[in-house]
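Page 42, continued from yesterday. The earlier attempt failed because a stray header line got pasted into the input along with the sequence. Redoing it now with the clean sequence only.
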Amino acid sequence: MKKQLRRGFKTEADAYAREFRRELSLRPYDPLCPWRLARHLEIPVDPLSAYTEIPEAVAYFMEQDQKSFSAMTLCDAYRRRIIHNDSHPPLRQASNIAHELGHGILGHIPRPVLDEHGCRYFDVEQEDEANWLGPALLISKESAFHIAKTKMSVVEASKVYQVSEQVITMRLNVSGTRKIFTK
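This time it went through. C-alpha cells are written below.
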C-alpha cells in the first residue's frame, strides 16, 4: 500500500526545482538537464556500459533484462555516484538520473542492495519521495504552467524538456495546470 508523502513534501520539491534552476542560471520554467544538475551537485554519473570489468552483468542488464536495472546510487561515506542503464532510451535515462539525484538531494540514507534474506532492500518512503522529486526537478511547477499557458502539446513539451510524454502528462496533472488552462 502506497503511503502518502509527508506533509509539506510537495512544496519542498517545488522549492528544490526552483532553487536548482536559479543556481544553474535558468528561468523557473526552463528545461533542466539532469546530467548538468549532477555535475553541479558534484555527483558523478556513469553509464552501466562503462563497467567493462563485469561484462556478464552489464550484458545481462543492458541486453537480456533491461527492465531489472534502471539506475542506482553508490555511496562511499558522503560521496555519491550514480550508475544508470544507458541501454534505456535517452528520455528514460533522464528520469532515471533525476530519480537518483532526488535521493541525494534529500539526503536519503544509503541502504544495502539486499536485505538479510537476499531480497532487494526497498524503502517505500524514500522511493516515493524520489519518485516525486525526480519528475518535479525535470518539469517544475512553473514549467508545467508554461507548457499549458503556451498551449504546447505533450509531444512538443517532451522534445523541449527532453523527458518522456508520461512525465509531462503526470506533471501537468499533479500541478493542476490542466484544470486551470482548460476552463
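Notes: The beta strands are 45-47, 71-76, 79-84.
Reminder to self: strip header lines before submitting.
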